[in-house]
Known about the structure:
The structure is a homodimer.
Chain A: E1 11-18, H1 22-42, E2 44-52, E3 57-59, H2 69-74, H3 82-90, E4 96-101, H4 112-117, E5 121-123, H5 134-147, E6 151-152, H6 163-172, E7 177-183, H7 186-194, H8 201-210, H9 219-222, H10 225-237, E8 248-249, H11 263-269, H12 274-286, E9 289-298, E10 303-312, E11 324-331, E12 339-344, H13 348-365
Amino acid sequence: MESIDHNGEKRQVAIGIVGPGLIGKTLLSQLALQTDRLREEWGLELQVFGVTNSQWMLLSATPISLSSWQTALESQDTEASLDSFTYHFATSPVADRVIIDCTASAAVPCHYTKWLSLGIHVITPNKRLGSGPLADYLAVKEAQRHYHAHFMAEGTVGAGLPVLSTLQSMINTGDKVAKIEGVFSGTLSFIFNNFGPGRPFSDVVGKAKAAGYTEPDPREDLSGMDVARKVVILARECGMQIELEDVAVESLVPEPLQSTSSVLDFMDQLPQFDADMEARASEAAEAGNKLVYVGLVDVAAGKCTVSLQSYPADHAFAQLSGSDNIIAFTTRRYSQQPLMIRGPGAGAEVTAAGVFGDLLQVAQSLGA
Amino acid sequence: MESIDHNGEKRQVAIGIVGPGLIGKTLLSQLALQTDRLREEWGLELQVFGVTNSQWMLLSATPISLSSWQTALESQDTEASLDSFTYHFATSPVADRVIIDCTASAAVPCHYTKWLSLGIHVITPNKRLGSGPLADYLAVKEAQRHYHAHFMAEGTVGAGLPVLSTLQSMINTGDKVAKIEGVFSGTLSFIFNNFGPGRPFSDVVGKAKAAGYTEPDPREDLSGMDVARKVVILARECGMQIELEDVAVESLVPEPLQSTSSVLDFMDQLPQFDADMEARASEAAEAGNKLVYVGLVDVAAGKCTVSLQSYPADHAFAQLSGSDNIIAFTTRRYSQQPLMIRGPGAGAEVTAAGVFGDLLQVAQSLGA
C-alpha cells in the first residue's frame, strides 16, 4: 500500500525507542536504510525523537540522526526516566507518536496503558505484557480500544514470521480457531533437531550452549517457560482468558537440578539424566517417530500445554532443521489441512523486521 | 488493531462487488456474519451499495441487505454496465469506497486505473491484472501511488494464505528477496501427492477431475499457465519487469494432445503417454525423490520458471498432502533457512477470506 499525499505533504511519525539493545539497535539500522525510500514512495517521515536505555536517555526536539544516535546517547548525562520520556512524547508537536519497547523487562509494560491513553501507539517484541497478569493485558486491550491507539506485538511470537497478523486476520474475517500448535523455541528446535538415540542429550545441550543458541543459563530454555509465554500470547489473542500458571508445562530440567546454584554445576550434572532422555528417544525411534518440544493452544478444549511429544517422521513438526519455528493453525476454514508457517523464529534481524513491519502497519493506519 | 472513534462516530466504507459468483457470494456471507462485530468493536460500517454480474446490476443509494441481495439482484431489470457502476460509486456521498472484482475476467481490470483515479480502492483475487500486460500493471501501480488509493490482491496467490502481505512486509522493511519457490496449484499438488510409480498418471488426473479438483478441462491446470500467472504476480511484486511469456513453462499436456478438440478425447488419449510419466516417477523414486510441480521466481538470476522437479523425500516440497500449496521465501534475512507458508491455497471460503483480509487492511488504513 504505497501512497503519497495529494499535496505532496509528508506524514510524520515520531518514534521513541526504549531499550536500544541488540534488537533495538538492529531496528534503528533497518530504519536508517529505509527512511529515504519511505519518504519518497509513501510520503512517510519516520523520525526518532527519543532513545533510552536503563541508565541514560537521549531526548530531542528535532529528529535524532540514525547514524550517530549511539555516540550521542553514550555522551548523555540525562539519567533515564520513563516518566520524563513519556512527558517528552506526550507534549510532542507531532500528532502521530509510537513508542517501541525493545526491552525484555517486566517494568516497561507498566507504562503501556498510560502511553495508549495519551494517544501514543505501542509496539513491542517484549513478551511480558502478553504473558503477564491477565488484568494488565486486558487493561491494555481496553485502552487500545478506548483511546484509538494501536498495540502491536508481532515480534513476540516467531520473531519476523507473520504469526500474530495471520491469526488476527483469521479472527477478524470470522474464522474460528480450533487449535494452534507448534515449535515456538528456536533453541529447543535446534536441540531436538540434533538429538536422537545414541547422542547424549547433555552433549547436544552443551553444543547448543557453546554455539550461542541457548540463554547463558540453558535452564531458561529447557524449563519451557519461554514457550509457555508464547502459548499464552496466542491463547489470549484467541479470546482465552488465561494466566501463565494455567499452562501445563513439561520442564526438561530434571527435578533435582532445578535448584542447582550454578550453570556450571547444572551442566556438570546433566549427563546423569541422559539415560532418561535416551529411553524416550529410543522409544520414539522404534515407532518411527521423533521427539519434538511442542506448545499447544487448544481453543476448543480450553486448555494450553507445553510438552515433549513424539511425532511420525513424515509429520511437518518432525521435519524441521536448524532452529526453525513452525506454527500450525487448525480452524473452521483450515480444518482438513492446517495453515502452517515455518522458518527461523529468532535472531535480531528477523525480530527487528517483525517490529518494523508493525510500525509500517501503524503508519498505514494513520493514512501513510 | 481495534478502535472506536473518540466521538463514537462510525467510519463508513461503501463497497461494490463485481461478479457475485462463488467467491463473491462467499465474501458477502462472510461480511454478513462480521458486520455487527466490526461496527461495535472497530466503529466500522462496511456497507454494500452495488452488486453486478455480467448481465444485471443492483445499485442502491442505501446499504443493500446482505441477506436478500441475491433475490434483489435476480429481480433486477437494470442491465449490467461497468460505466454506470463506476458512476454510481464516483458520485457516492460516502468518502471511502472500495470496488471488489471477484471475476476471473480480463475485461474488468481495464477499469482499475479509472477507479483508483477516482479515489476508489480496488481489491481482487483476479490474476488477470497482475499477470497481464506489464504496461497495464505498471499503470495501476502508478495510479495507486498518484491518487492515494489502494490496490490489493492477496487472494491471487495461495488464496487466504498470507503470501503477498508477507512478501510486501519483507520488501518494505528492507529485506532483499533472492528467490520465491513453491507449489502454487492446489490441483497439481493433489495430482502429484497421489502420483507415483505404479499408478498411471492418466488415472490420477481422471480421479482429480472426478473429484472436482481440476478445471472442467484439466488441460487448463496441466498446462501450468495458472502457476505461471502466480509466478508473474510474485516476480513483479519483487520489482521484476516481466511478462507472462517470459516464464519458461513446462506443460504437462503431451504435445500431440494440446490441440485435441474435446475434453473427452483428451482424457481418452492421455493413457498413451503414461509411460513417459511413469519413467520420470520411477527415476525419481530410485533416487529417493518425489516429483513436484514447482514455480520459481529467481530474483537474483532474473528469471522465472514453472517445471516438474524431483525433490528428496525429506524436503518440505515433497511432504505435502491434499491440495496444499507451499511457498518458500529465500531472502537476505532468511538465507540459511527459508520462511515457508503452507496450507490449502484454493477454495471459496479461504479465497474470500483473503479478500476480506485485504478489505480490513484498507479499512484500517482509512483510520478504522
